[in-house]
Amino acid sequence: MAEEKMIDVKCSVCSKDMQMPASFVEKGKEKGIDAMNMPHICSDCTDKVGDELGGEKMKGFMEEVNMQMEKMGKNNEIAEELAEEITNANVGSLLDELEGEDASEEDKIKEGFYRGVWMTLFLIANNHEPGFLDKEVEAIKDFQEKMKERENGNA
């Protein structure tokens, strides 16, 4: 698994050197934003701003944002590692099964993707209460729709 490439930027408040993920620049470009020239704020200045602009409320908000960003990064890291492990463990049997089939490359790709999605949903559902997927199906579909829009540059 490749680590996220980081790029150097400067804090817009104190000019301290800091880093941000390179993917932010690409996502910004997709949305017409110049991420390299947008304001950046380091954690030291964030703490100071929190004290000066509303004290605990602002500081709590920034802590929550930082915690969510860290959680997203960890979840992404775990998801990538598990996806690679599961793929490597199962791709051989999938290819063997599909080899005798008169299926197009597109159909084979779709079948592989379907199995990955199915396995993910199956494992999640089995680790939650009965009826979990019934309750979550709309949220999952909404998330998938938002991801499609983002990939198409409409978000």
Q: What would you note in describing this structure?
A:
The chain has 155 residues and is mainly α. The protein has a domain at 101-155. The chain has helices at residues 22-30, 43-52, 56-99, 105-126, 132-151, and strands spanning 6-10, 17-21. A two-stranded antiparallel sheet has the order 1-2. Helix 2 (43-52) crosses helix 3 (56-99). The longest helix has 44 residues, at 56-99. The mean pLDDT is 77.
Q: Tell me the radius of gyration.
A: 21 Å
Spans of at least 5 consecutive residues with low confidence: none
How much of the sequence lies in strands comes to 5-15%
Trace the largest sheet across and list its strands: 1-2
Termini separation: 28 Å
Based on DSSP secondary structure assignment, what is the total number of beta strands? 2
The helix content is 55-70%
In DSSP terms, counting alpha (H) and pi (I) runs of 4 or more, how many helices? 5
Taken from the alpha-carbon principal axes, the silhouette is elongated
Q: Characterize the largest beta sheet: strand count, sense, and whether it forms a barrel.
A: 2 strands, antiparallel
Q: How does the helix and strand content classify structurally?
A: mainly alpha
Whole-number mean pLDDT: 77
Strand/helix succession: EEHHHHH
Briefly summarize what is shown.
The protein is mainly α and 155 residues long.
Protein topology:
Layout: E1 6-10, E2 17-21, H1 22-30, H2 43-52, H3 56-99, H4 105-126, H5 132-151
Antiparallel strand pairs: 1-2
Helix pairs in contact: 2-3
